[in-house]
Design a protein that fits this description.
Layout (H helix, E strand, L loop, with lengths): L36 E5 L6 H8 L2 E5 H8 L4 H19 L1 H8 L6
Antiparallel strand pairs: 1-2
Helix pairs in contact: 3-4
Length: 108
């Protein structure tokens, strides 16, 4: 008796294009050290973390700075990074696209 095999249908999400990082990596953007670095997405939450990854809006932070920014203990650095992220995004894609995607202006 011949056994017929059926292939499982492939249901893959379409791949989104990822752009190169807009920030140089390799040092902490908080204290400028070069060790113990972690990737920090400038705009967290759903779907902003995915959009940060897609458009290259992430920086390297050391463990301590990353903890401080994530827990919003260092609001000054958090605000500065978000403003610089918006500036760099708008330099490439423009303000209209920024507002369409992220719907918040950090430069005011």
């Amino acid at each position: 008796m011949k056994v017929q095999s059926f292939q499982k249908p492939q249901h893959k999400k379409p791949r989104t294009k990822k752009y190169r990082p807009l920030f140089p990596l390799g040092f902490c953007w908080g204290c400028h050290c070069e060790y113990g670095l972690e990737r920090h997405h400038l705009y967290g939450g759903n779907p902003d973390r995915r959009l940060s990854e897609q458009y290259g809006l992430y920086v390297s932070l050391c463990t301590e700075c990353h903890r401080n920014v994530t827990d919003e203990l260092d609001r000054e650095l958090c605000t500065r990074l978000k403003q610089e992220g918006q500036r760099r995004f708008e330099a490439v894609w423009g303000h209209e696209k920024w507002m369409k995607i992220f719907q918040k202006n950090y430069l005011d």
